[in-house]
Design goal:
It is built from 5 helices and 25 strands. By secondary structure, the chain is α+β, with helices and mostly antiparallel strands. β14 (262-271) and β15 (278-287) form a beta hairpin.
Length: 410
């Protein structure tokens, strides 16, 4: 079989196919926003943004009299601000290869690293999620422990289609081990012989070394709500955060919270987003900005979601009372694995074609199934080497915090 002289187009086509196969978490989230970018022929640069519409909510009347409601659509923006790339060099002699050989020896190892970085960035959105079930620090090693995730999703009326779960290796293998005791060879055979979990409780389950470890803030003191009626109206800009004034912390900045800390407020219960009925557990909130106490033990938290107690976007049973206690998930300054279960529309990944730089020669840009790779070679005539840069441009965004849950074991 004759050799093939490789060019940028051949390498780009091979790269986009390999990258698609290597994505895990990134392949499970919403990818439809690429369509918002399809009108720009020359490609995109870092900083380009799109606006995302969030679904609206309504209240149901129970009388014969019509009562029109305003249609309020919240919006948020997604910025295309992340680049993942690898670079490699070949002599002219090495470039006269079979593409299969080059894919195995060079392109695939390089794309594994790119896919890993994209997965890390998508997984990093876990800090936006306020829902956290189970006992932090405990492995997911039984169906009862695993089921706390889908149970939480069901209680909050999260759609049952397109649910996925990402487990850290220790949790994944503990869960696989629990399945080997089942009296069903179609389940325990795959668990024991192949280490497969598959669909459990309507959650398509995967293992990923990128399942994050979250370290809680230093905290300190006995934090309390400082002032009653700290509820607000729904933010149509899409940020859906608010300030919560608290006191009772250890004074003089000794107490701190970090982005991703999760807590509840005494007396503030979650509600079903569809029926607005009060649920039998407290509403969970997540800290969205680092904060430290002052010399008097006061600390104003930036939290999500907002505390909304009435109307179509009601999400809490009541506004917090003055001196209501805050209870944080986990122990201060402790690292916990955060497994994640989510419905596809909780998060979004948008990969777009990069701009072809003016003056660059033999640029290739290939897109397939929403994945776009750009390859540019540049030549070192002294050493007869071509350096090839391979780039992917993308953005990630949490679209709806309600559609995901962090899961620890029991």
């Amino acid at each position: 079989m004759s050799n093939t002289t490789l060019n940028a187009s051949i390498i780009a086509k091979a790269a986009v196919g390999i990258l698609e196969n290597e994505l895990t978490m990134a392949g499970l989230v919403y990818r439809g926003y690429e369509e918002e970018f399809d009108k720009k022929i020359n490609g995109y640069t870092v900083g380009d943004t799109i606006t995302i519409r969030k679904p609206t909510d309504f209240t149901v009347r129970n009388t014969i009299t019509a009562s029109a409601q305003d249609v309020q659509e919240a919006k948020l923006t997604m910025q295309i601000n992340k680049i993942a790339g690898v670079d490699f060099a070949f002599t002219s002699q090495q470039l006269t290869l079979n593409i299969a050989q080059l894919s195995e020896r060079v392109i695939q190892p390089a794309l594994v690293q790119v896919a890993n970085q994209i997965d890390l960035d998508v997984m990093g959105l876990y800090k936006d999620i306020p829902q956290w079930v189970g006992t932090p620090g405990t492995l997911v090693q039984s169906f009862a422990g695993f089921a706390k995730g889908p149970t939480n999703l069901d209680q909050r009326s999260v759609p049952q289609n397109d649910r996925s779960g990402i487990l850290a290796p220790a949790d994944f293998w503990a869960m696989a081990g629990s399945q080997t005791a089942l009296y069903n060879n179609s389940i325990n055979g795959k668990s024991y012989r192949q280490g497969q979990i598959g669909m459990v409780g309507n959650v398509d389950t995967y293992m990923s070394q990128n399942a994050p470890t979250f370290t809680t803030g230093p905290m300190g003191g006995t934090p309390l709500v400082n002032g009653a009626n700290q509820n607000t109206t729904y933010d149509l800009t899409g940020a859906n955060t608010q300030s919560l004034i608290t006191d009772g912390w250890t004074a003089a900045a000794a107490a701190r919270v970090v982005v991703g800390d999760v807590f509840t407020i005494a007396g503030v219960f979650d509600v079903n987003p569809v029926t607005k009925a009060t649920l039998p557990f407290l509403k969970q909130f997540v800290v969205t900005a680092n904060g430290s106490s002052d010399g008097s033990g006061n600390l104003t938290l930036t939290i999500a979601p907002q505390i909304v107690t009435s109307g179509a976007f009601k999400n809490c049973s009541a506004a917090p009372a003055d001196n209501a206690a805050l209870t944080f998930v986990g122990t201060a300054n402790t690292a916990y694995t955060n497994n994640l279960m989510f419905q596809k529309n909780a998060f979004a990944l948008c990969m777009v074609p990069m701009v072809k730089p003016p003056g660059a020669v033999d640029v290739s840009r290939v897109s397939k199934n929403g994945i776009s790779v750009r390859v540019i070679p540049f030549y070192d005539g002294t050493n007869d080497k071509s350096t090839w840069r391979l780039d992917v441009l993308y953005g990630v965004q949490t679209v709806d915090r309600r559609l995901a849950v962090r899961v620890s074991g029991t």
